[in-house]
Structures are given as structure tokens and as C-alpha cells.
Amino acid sequence: MADIMFAGIGGQGVLTAGKILIQIAAENGKNVSWTSEYSAEMRGGIALCRVVVSDEEIGSPYPDTLDVLVCMNEDAYNTYIDQAADGAKIIINKSLFSDREYPANVEVFGVDAMGISADLNNTRGANLVMMGAMIAATQMMDKQQFSDTLRDYFDHKGIPSEKNVQCFEAGYEKAGKIG
Fold first, then answer.
1. Considering only CA atoms, which of 17, 20, 75 is closest in space to residue 46?
2. Which domains does the chain have, with CATH numbers?
3. SUPFAM superfamilies, from UniProt (predicted)?
4. Using 50, 70 and 90 to split pLDDT, how confident is the model at 61?
């Protein structure tokens, strides 16, 4: 089981990333739960979602501690790092982080989500870069299986999938442990 939080600000695709993850996990035989919180602002306010992915029945959609924390910005990290369990995987968007020290009881992985998505001409794909980094860090699902299901997800919605899948795969390949 993995208790996951995607956190950032409105407009960064935090809620969408969580929804994509639960759909792909469910399509691949996992039990899932998704809850969200966000402020009244459409863009710029706090946005987060909690996702639980499990092979077994899920007892609560509100975990006490997080196994995975995906931070789209530094404020999200500062706000939610205290909820990370010992040994948790923390994935940060290096594009919006300053140099800093990280706690020794967690593993921190970073990726330049905004730079990568811009290089791929898909600036709205930073959340998918982060998802790729998360899958690489956690190995919770097979990369190719996730990539194929992600392609199906966008094709089913009538959205061209190639640039979105490229963002995911680049995030997977370029994520690196930094702490």
C-alpha cells in the first residue's frame, strides 16, 4: 500500500495528476482512493490531493502519515513534510526549490519539471514529469505499463497523448536522488 500526496498551487495540475494515477492504478488491478483539498482561488491557491493505492482493501482515504509526497513547489514541501513517514519518498520540482538540507529519515528525488516540460513544448505537462519521477522513485508500477495506460487515458479523452507520454517518460528518466 502507498499513501501519497500531490501538493502545490492551483493551476499546476496537482489534482489532475492524482486523478490520472488512480485511474491508471485501478485499470491495472489496484484498489484506489482519492480525496482533494483546495482553496477558493482557481489559480494560485493551495491545492492537494491524497491518493491511496493498494493491492488490498483500503481502510481510510486519510492516512496518518505519507509514504510518498510529491511537491510541485517549495511551500508545499514546507507545509507537508512533517506528514512524511520514516523512509518516505519525497519528489520535488527542482524548478521551484532553493538549495536546502533535507531530513535524513526520508529519500528525496528531484526533477526539473518545468524545464523538461518546456523543452518538450508541453508547459502544462510538468505534473506528468513529476508523476514520472514518482514512479521512478517508488517503482510502484512498471514504467512501460504506466506509459501505455497513460497513452490510452489521453487517447480516450480525445487529447493527443504523445507529448504527455513524453513528459512522463522524461520525468522517469531524469529523476535523481538528491537527499
1. 75
2. 2-177 (3.40.920.10)
3. Pyruvate-ferredoxin oxidoreductase, PFOR, domain III
4. confident
Instruction: Work out the number of other CB atoms within 10 angstroms of the CB of residue 44.
Output: 11
Buried b (16+ CB within 10 A) or exposed e, 75-112: ebbeebbebbbeebbbbbbbbbbeeeeeeeebbbbbbb
C-alpha cell at 140: 510502484
Residue spans of alpha helices (H) in the chain? 14-27, 74-80, 113-119, 126-138, 143-156, 162-174
DSSP code for 103: -
The backbone region for 158, taken as left when phi is positive above 0, alpha when psi lies in -120 to 50, beta otherwise, is left
Instruction: Please list the residues that pair with 43 across neighbouring strands.
Output: none
Residue 87's identity, in one-letter code, is G
* Average pLDDT of span 35-45: 76
Length of the chain equals 179
The confidence score (pLDDT) of residue 46 equals 85
43: pLDDT strictly greater than 70: no
Distance (Å, whole) CA 106 – CA 138: 12
